[in-house]
Amino acid sequence: MMAALLNRLGHGLRASMRMRFDAAAFGLGASSVGALSAPLTRLLSDESGYLAWLVDLIAHWQWLYVVAGGVCAAILLRRRPGVLVLLASGLIGIGWSGATTRADSAMPGSAPALTIATANLKLGQARLDDLAHWIGDLGADLVVLQEVSKESARRIAQWQDYPHQLVTADEGPFGLAILSRTPLTGSEALESLQQPLRYRSFISWQGHRIGISAIHPMPPISPTYHQRRVEMLTEEAQWSQHVSAPSIVAGDLNSTPWSSALAAVEPAGLLRATGLRPTWPAVFPVIPIDHILINDAWQVVESGVGPDIGSDHRPAFAVLSLRAQAIHAE
């Protein structure tokens, strides 16, 4: 009786182990296929149909593929080390390495630094006191805000550290703001039936004219919005080239470093100042979609992600310094 019971228990354990390894094999295979969407989306960057949209959506989740694929590979290697497991892991690595280029780094203290932060306020639901404390600790010179409600705008107008403000309040997702310690000049607001509001402006910093663009493209929930997001970022990259000044584009870009939208602006010289650390959703961030992009006049001293401020996004920041060539060119 006892022998039969032990035999049945052994069969059950072996079946459970087989199911575990089968699930791990499936997870590793799915992760490797998902990871390959990153290089594939670059090949489809000139396309605007359903395939390009779908591949781009899949490419956003590289963090998930790395973590899930790594766990599955570790489980499988305990029992069946082999070429296929290593090959699948290599494919995940290829996907991860498909991220768009990050701008060059600079040594802290080597030159004056400008600090910029960006935060999505979740339709005005973010805790503004927490945000104010965080940007105060950062010593941010510029702050770009998205989803600014009327109540948020009223409270932000009282922030004495940022007397120069461009603000459009909206009870939907289209509220936008640029806050600056120094005067904003040459400002313009662009909006159309196809594209949500964006701001372009300039500040004078350390004797240099600095361009700043604040944007919040629609999330790529359809092929149409996917294409419009690419178009908005491309237009801001062209603006950055046209102004012939050190320039910055910041906001909730609804794009990860593996997306076709950020790949599209690389040829125009807009590179990420922010890293690969996820910003959304705030409680357990999985994908990095809040970014600060810079042209080749800048180097990155530091960048990072801020705390939970009650939004569905974590804020992001970058500390920037001008290259010597940019200083001498003016």
From TrEMBL:
Keywords per UniProt: Membrane, Transmembrane, Transmembrane helix
Alphabetized Pfam families for the sequence: Exo_endo_phos
Highest taxon of source: Bacteria
Species name: Parazoarcus communis
Single Gene Ontology MF annotation: catalytic activity
SUPFAM superfamilies (alphabetical): DNase I-like
Record-annotated Endonuclease/exonuclease/phosphatase domain positions: 118-313
Keyword Transcription regulation among record annotations: no
InterPro entries assigned: Endo/exonu/phosph_ase_sf, Endo/exonuclease/phosphatase
Protein's name in the database: Endonuclease/exonuclease/phosphatase domain-containing protein
TM region positions: 61-77, 82-99
